[in-house]
Design a protein that fits this description.
2 copies of one chain form a homodimer. Chain A is α+β, with helices and mostly antiparallel strands. Chain A has 4 helices and 8 strands, in the order ββααββββββαα. Chain A has an 8-stranded antiparallel beta sheet. Chain A is globular.
């Protein structure tokens, strides 16, 4: 008997590094594109998955080109603030924004998520992260990012399963 | 007879592009390092030179690592907002911060100014701008940046000449 809430059929993360300053991630979600877009852009829904179970206080989330966002994760090791600004918001298609962790101010990342409708009604989210330097990129890769991302995506799976 | 306020001995700007994503600028100022540092970090003084004669409203200027800055230039063609965050503040030595124009949100630049004392008591400011992409860098080079910078530096010369 398993107590894990992870479904046996969890969709895999495909992570590649196509250039020296990028991380490319693909992940399929078992929900419509409209549903997944909402989970990425509605503050109340983001708070349910992005923090992987940690409390997430969303201080600002102006989902439009030029708008700012800022959220603070309250984890067992303390508070972590993250913030940035939206570069492109094309509903249900493209969400592009800068991303900066308070612990490394000015080490800005540009994340661009593209939402692809699959023929079976599911959605593939293709996310590219562009870093200022290879050192910043490699620092992120060695920070436990992949595990944290897997946990976030699992929390998103659970949210989407609620319909 | 000249009505220009530019001194005959204006110090030249030396601009180079050492890599595909950088602009490197050197400029000497006829003042001590302490004096030049203050002109770069005191909001009241920045307002006197950075806007090249245009009104500059400084909404935020927290000169410390992780602090934010934001200012709005009121020019003949309207308002232009600029903002960013300090990456490094080492008094009188290094000032590094991100720079973003509201018109191109998320196209972040990292500017790093180093202040060098010269043996004759003057100060060389060496500024490197690192862009996310070559396209962003070239866009800046073709935007009239060099002329704007020359005007700002001339205004700074005048401020420094006031002692």
């Amino acid at each position: 008997m398993s107590t894990s809430s992870t479904p046996a059929t969890e969709n895999p993360i495909v992570l590649t590094t196509p250039t020296e300053r990028e991380i490319h991630v693909e992940r399929v979600f078992n929900a419509s594109r409209h549903r997944v877009w909402t989970a990425y852009t509605d503050p109340g829904q983001i708070a349910q998955w992005w923090g992987r179970g940690n409390e997430l206080v969303i201080e600002r989330m102006e989902v439009r080109r030029g708008g700012h966002w800022r959220c603070v994760e309250h984890g067992p090791d303390g508070e972590h603030g993250f913030e940035g600004r939206y570069r492109e918001v094309t509903p249900e298609e493209v969400l592009s924004y800068t991303f900066e962790w308070d612990g490394m101010p000015g080490h800005v990342i540009v994340e661009t998520a593209r939402f692809e409708e699959l023929p079976d009604g599911r959605t593939r989210v293709v996310t590219t992260a562009l870093f200022l330097t290879t050192e910043d990129r490699d620092g992120m890769l060695h920070s436990g990012m992949e595990q944290g991302m897997a946990e976030s995506y699992r929390a998103l799976d659970r949210l989407l399963a609620q319909g």
